[in-house]
Amino acid sequence: xxxxxxxxxxxxxxxxxxxxxxxxxxxxxxxxxxxxxxxxxxxxxxxxxxxxxxxxxxxxxxxxxxxxxxxxxxxxxxxxxxxxxxxxxxxxxxxxxxxxxxxxxxxxxxxxxxxxxxxxxxxxxxxxxxxxxxxxxxxxxxxxxxxxxxxxxxxxxxxxxxxxxxxxxxxxxxxxxxxxxxxxxxxxxxxxxxxxxxxxxxxxxxxxxxxxxxxxxxxxxxxxxxxxxxxxxxxxxxxxxxxxxxxxxxxxxxxxxxxxxxxxxxxxxxxxxxxxxxxxxxxxxxxxxxxxxxxxxxxxxxxxxxxxxxxxxxxxxxxxxxxxxxxxxxxxxxxxxxxxxxxxxxxxxxxxxxxxxxxxxxxxxxxxxxxxxxxxxxxxx
Amino acid sequence: xxxxxxxxxxxxxxxxxxxxxxxxxxxxxxxxxxxxxxxxxxxxxxxxxxxxxxxxxxxxxxxxxxxxxxxxxxxxxxxxxxxxxxxxxxxxxxxxxxxxxxxxxxxxxxxxxxxxxxxxxxxxxxxxxxxxxxxxxxxxxxxxxxxxxxxxxxxxxxxxxxxxxxxxxxxxxxxxxxxxxxxxxxxxxxxxxxxxxxxxxxxxxxxxxxxxxxxxxxxxxxxxxxxxxxxxxxxxxxxxxxxxxxxxxxxxxxxxxxxxxxxxxxxxxxxxxxxxxxxxxxxxxxxxxxxxxxxxxxx
Lengths: 381, 299
Ligand SMILES: Nc1ncnc2c1ncn2[C@@H]1O[C@H](COP(=O)(O)OP(=O)(O)OP(=O)(O)O)[C@@H](O)[C@H]1O
Ligand SMILES: [Mg+2]
Hints:
Oligomer: heterodimer
Keywords (chain A): ATP-binding, Cell inner membrane, Cell membrane, Membrane, Nucleotide-binding, Translocase, Transport
Largest sheet of chain B: 2 strands, antiparallel
Shape of chain B: globular
EC number (chain A): 7.6.2.11
Radius of gyration of chain B: 25 Å
Pfam families (chain A): ABC_tran (PF00005), TOBE_2 (PF08402)
Strand content of chain B: under 5%
Number of helices of chain A: 9
Strand order of the largest sheet of chain A: 6-7-8-3-9-10
GO molecular function (chain A): ABC-type polyamine transporter activity; ATP binding; ATP hydrolysis activity
Bound molecules: adenosine-5'-triphosphate, magnesium ion
C-alpha cells in the first residue's frame, strides 16, 4: 500500500515538474552572446512559442535544446535530467527544421521511416507508423514521391510527419510555416493546434510572426537580444505588456511619455508633454510620484467621434480634441492618425461594422479622441 | 526572331562535335578499314572523287574488316586492352579512396579556407604535366631523392628499384589525376546542406550512420563524374605508363603509339582507336542511364 502511495506521489511530483527546464543558459559566438542567461520552464503538453525579432537567438536556443549547440553556461533539464552530455541522436527530442531538411534522395515514405528504422522498430511497426503519420498529415497518396516532387505545403507536412513519427516528448519547430503563403499558413496553424491537442506532445515553436504565436500558443516567450522580455499567455502579453519594448513589439501601440503627478488607490494622474494630463489605472507595482513613466494605449481602444461622449458617460474618461491627419482603409478596419491639439499624434483603429459608413471621418476632420483610464497601461521608463 | 539565336546556340555544340569529332572520326574509321601500304599516306585504297564512279566503287570494295580480325587474333592487342582496363580500374579505385576524404574535408572547411584549398588542388596544373612527371622520375630513380632519404634513415641497405615498375606508374597516375577526382566530388559534397546531416542525427542516426545514409548517396553523382573523368583518360593514357612503368607489358595507348609511329601501320592503329572508343562508350552510356534514372526520380 505504501509503495503504491509512493509511486502516485512521485507521479504527481513528476506531473507538476516542468518537462523542460532551462536554467540561466548562455551561448556565445566569439564574444557575442547569442543567448544571454535565459531561464524558462515549459510544462508537459504545452504549446509554447518563442517570439522575437530576427537575430535575437531563437534558433540558437532551439539548437541547444536539440543538442546541436552546447550551452557555455547554465543547464538544460529534460524531465529533470541534465541533457548537456546527451548527443543529438540520443535525445528524446525531435526538430522540424526551418528549411524542412527533407532527404532529397528518399521518398516521402523513406523520409518518415528514417527515424523509425534508427530506433530499431520492427518492419510491421515501421509500416504501421508510416501509415499513421501519413494519415495524420493527410498525405496518404504521396508516399512514393520524392521531396522535389512536392509543393511547399506538402513538404512542410512531410517534415512534420517525420519529426512526429518517433513520438518525441518534445517537438521543436523552427519557423515551420515561414515559407507558406498567408492562406496556407493560417490553415496549417489550425492544423498544428489540433494535432498538438490530439497527440499531447509538447511543442516549442519559433516564430517572428506575432499573429502566428498568438494563434497557436498557450504561452509566448518574447525574446530580445538573447534574453526573455516576458513570458505570458497571448492575451496577457497584449493587454498587460511588461515593458515598453514588449508593448511596441507585440501589436500596435500609442506611447505617451510623462511623469506621475498624483496617485490614489483607483487612479493615477500622469502629466505628459504633448497630451496634457491623463487619468490612468494604477499599475500593479507601486510607482512613485514624479517618476518618469510611459503610458501605452492600443489603437483599437481609442474611440473617435465628431462630438465628445455625453457628459455623464464621459466622467473619468480621457478626452482630447484633434484633427484626422491620415487614414488608411484596411478592409475590416480603418486606421486613423489623429493629431491632437496638445501636440501628440495618436493612432486609432475603428472596426468597419457596416458596409456603408455614414459617420466616416475624412482627412482634416475635427474629432474628439477618447479612451478609458482602464485601457491605459503604465510602464516604467 | 527570338527563337533563332536560341536554336543557333543549341546547334553550335552539335556543329562543333560534327566538325572536330565526327568528321575526323570518320576518317579514322575509314583508315581502320584500309590496308597498310608503302605510300604517302601509308595506306590503300584512297578515295579520289575526281577519278569517277567506277574507281570509287572499286575503292569501297577494297575496304575490309581484316584489321579488326587481327586485333582479336593476336593476343598482344587484347592483352593491352585488358591491361589498360585493369590499370584504369585500379587507379580509379585508388583515386576515389584518396580523393573522397580530401574532397570531404575541403567541403567541411570554413568557407574562407575552401577557396585556398581549391587553389592548392589546382596549382599543380600551372606547371607542365611533362615536367612534373620528369620530376617524379628524378625522385624515383636509382640515386633519386626517395632512395637517398631511405638510405639516409637506414630504412633500406641498398637502393630500391622504384622506377619502371607498376607502383611507379600507379603513383604517377594517382598524382596526375587526383584533381580530376577531387573537383567533382568537392562540388557535390559542398552542395549538401549541413542541415540534412543534423536532421539525420536528430532522427537518431549517429554521425557515422548519417554519413552513410545521407552524405554518401547524395555524393553519388560526384563519384560518377570523378570516376569517369579519371577512368576514361587513364585507359588511353600513354605518357605516364611509357615513362614510369616497366616495358614488359603495354597499355593500349603504348600499343597504339607503336603501331602508328614504329610500325607505320596506320590502319591497325586506327582499328585499335576505334575499338577503344567503342569500349569506352559502354561505361559512359551506363553512367548516363544512371543519371537519367536519378533525374527522373520515382522508385
Ligand atoms: N554559428 C554561428 N556563428 C556565429 N554567430 C552565430 C552563429 N549562429 C548564430 N549566430 C548569431 O547569433 C545571433 C542569433 O542567431 P539566431 O539564428 O539564433 O537568430 P534567430 O532569432 O533565429 O533569427 P531569425 O529570426 O533571423 O532566424 C545572430 O546574431 C547570429 O548572427
Ligand atoms: Mg532562426
